[in-house]
Design a protein that fits this description.
The complex is a heterodimer of chains A (271) and B (283). With 271 residues, chain A is of the alpha/beta class. In chain A, 34% of the residues lie in helices and 25% in strands. The chains are: A alpha/beta (271), B mainly alpha (283). The structure holds adenosine-5'-diphosphate (ADP) and magnesium ion.
């Protein structure tokens, strides 16, 4: 990584108004239980959008619909449209591997695969590179190093790349879980409360890392930590009981919320 | 309640030690008498009933057991792994329950019934299909034994797949892995220990099985050169000959020595399986 990381408040990023993820009139049912109600939501490219709201309001559900990982459950039904880079990902002909290559996901609890650090970084890359087997070791080493450098983990783990990833600290695991997405150059990163399993120090470190990825990737981050939303996102969307109530610039939303529910939540009157 | 369990545990240990002592005691006089270590392990001549020159070469019997067990694993490993992967990773709801019950039923078939199937159906089938003079051979006994070992192997393998946390599958699929890629690259490596111990237990079952092998293998002393050769297994030899020997005779002692050998082999296999399983828990 020769290029310096983008400075925290690079103004050019915000000038970009292209939409990376467009959610239109989207509803979702778990069996007969409706979890999302006609959500309309546009996520701008290259910035960090945070998704806040009380527990159980459907933040994870919305996030997990964008890469269709909710499909795994087998009893989920949806209506509406979710466009990622212009393509409706709910179409039946969408190739899920391709979609998930473009849209990476970071989970609430760090979930490195029970493989070595190196294998974790190369996992996605190998899946999505048809001739990955033919790549030389040097090329792969280069990929591993780049990814780990980008998440500021290289110096800590460079001497134990063949050790099990599950032996790392939670903070390191979560950084690794971000790093392993990068070699396939995703466009969008979905993060579901990426810091909630971490202690305050680790949270700060991972937040800082996420801030550094801003600009290069479109980031949609769920959080129930309002301070985090406030300091670590450009735009903010508030959800309540399966509906998207308000979506605005973070600074604006926290100072002058347009809806009473938003104000109540921000002031801590919900769980 | 605790007392009963304690008693049960103690008596199990006493029984095992008792059995071993008994087998050893019956085998020892022979071991220190007519026994010839080199002959035992290198000669295929098992002629214990000869009037003037009885020989006790167990090589053919050992190879008989090994070849049948090997054949059985060639059948059972793909079968049980495939079944475990299908049941554990793909089947849902009714299909899954039905399959599990079916596997349990398969495990409940008595070995003499398996032997009977080998003796009749499989025998005829092998003769017809491969155009060989007899169908009671390594192939027949191996297939029968493989089918017998597969259910328990399937159950253990499926348990070890189920023990792999779902978060790993989710993580892999979220990176765009297909179900198969997830299984191959994540689930199977993570379940490796359990799978290895499933195979080892299957091998142990193969070494110890008697009746079905006796009936399906042809029971003739041979060093097998192809799967169509009849062979004789260690276990089957003991079962078939023990009733006709005089207690205390060298032949009697020799059969017990075969017993000691079997005991040691199965003990080692089970011990390895156990250690491998322990390896999983530690992780
Ligand atoms: N797998 C599931 N099956 C059934 N209901 C679910 C499932 N996951 C979430 N829900 C329900 O959907 C609603 C929204 O959940 P979720 O999206 O996890 O909320 P959040 O992430 O905002 O806390 C909740 O009422 C929850 O109980
Ligand atoms: Mg959630």
């Amino acid at each position: 990584m020769e290029t310096p990381p983008p400075t925290p408040d690079a103004p050019d990023v915000l000038a970009n108004t292209e939409i990376a993820v467009r959610v239109k009139d989207f509803s979702l049912w778990y069996g007969t239980f409706q979890a999302l109600f006609a959500v309309d939501f546009n996520v701008k490219q290259g910035i960090i959008t945070s998704l806040i709201g009380p527990s159980g309001c459907g933040k994870s559900t919305l996030l997990r619909s964008i890469n269709r990982i909710n499909d795994r459950l087998g009893y989920v039904r949806t209506e509406g449209v979710i466009e990622v880079l212009g393509k409706n990902v709910l179409d039946s002909d969408v190739a899920l591997p391709q979609l998930r290559k473009q849209v990476g996901m970071v989970f609430q609890r760090p979930n490195p695969l029970p493989l070595s650090i190196r294998e974790n970084i190369l996992f996605s890359y190998t899946l999505h590179t048809p001739d990955a087997r033919k790549r030389t070791k040097a090329e792969k080493d280069q990929i591993v190093e780049e990814a780990l450098r980008e998440v500021l983990l290289w110096d800590t783990v460079k001497d134990r790349l063949d050790h099990s990833a599950t032996a790392l600290s939670l903070e390191q695991q979560q950084k690794l879980c971000i790093a392993r997405l990068l070699p396939v150059k995703p466009r969008v990163l979905l993060m579901d409360e990426p810091c909630s399993a971490l202690d305050p120090e680790a949270t700060a470190a991972v937040e800082e890392l996420i801030w550094q990825l801003r600009g290069e990737y479109t980031i949609l981050m769920v959080t129930h930590n309002m301070a985090q939303a406030r300091r670590a996102s450009d735009e903010c969307a508030f959800m309540l009981m399966g509906k998207l109530v308000e979506h605005a610039d973070t600074a604006e939303m926290f100072v002058t919320p347009r809806h009473k529910e938003t104000a109540d939540y921000i002031e801590g009157r919900y769980g | 309640m605790q007392g009963i369990m304690y008693l049960g545990g103690i008596s199990a240990i006493i029984f095992i030690i008792g059995i071993f002592v008994f087998i050893a005691k019956e085998g020892l006089p022979f071991l220190f008498g007519a026994f010839d270590l080199k002959e035992f392990f290198t000669s295929p001549r098992w002629i214990p009933t000869s009037e003037n020159n009885p020989t006790y070469g167990a090589l053919a019997l050992i190879l008989g057991t090994a070849s049948v067990t090997g054949m059985a694993m060639i059948v059972a490993i793909p079968f049980s792994l495939g079944a475990a992967i299908f049941i554990g990773e793909f089947a849902t709801g009714k299909t899954r329950e039905t399959l599990k019950i079916l596997i349990e039923l398969l495990a409940a078939i008595p070995s003499v019934v398996w032997g009977f199937i080998g003796l009749t159906i499989m025998n005829g089938l092998i003769i017809k299909l491969f155009n060989v003079p007899i169908g009671l051979n390594v192939l027949n006994a191996g297939i029968i034994l493989g089918l017998m070992a597969a259910p328990i192997m399937t159950t253990i393998a499926e348990d070890s797949l189920k023990a792999v946390p779902d978060k790993y599958r989710e993580a892999a699929e979220a990176m765009g892995a297909t179900r198969w890629q997830t299984i191959r690259r994540v689930v199977l490596p993570a379940a490796k220990n359990g799978l290895v111990s499933a195979v080892l237990l299957g091998v142990g079952r193969g070494f110890g099985e008697t009746m079905a092998v006796l009936m399906a293998s042809g029971h003739s002393i041979n060093i097998p050169h192809s799967v169509f050769d009849s062979v004789r297994a260690l276990t089957a030899t003991i079962a078939a000959e023990l009733g006709e020997t005089a207690v205390g005779s060298p032949h009697y002692g020799a059969l017990f020595t075969l017993g000691i050998l079997l005991f040691i082999i199965t003990f080692l296999i089970n011990l390895t399986a156990d250690l491998v399983v322990r390896g999983i828990r530690k992780k």
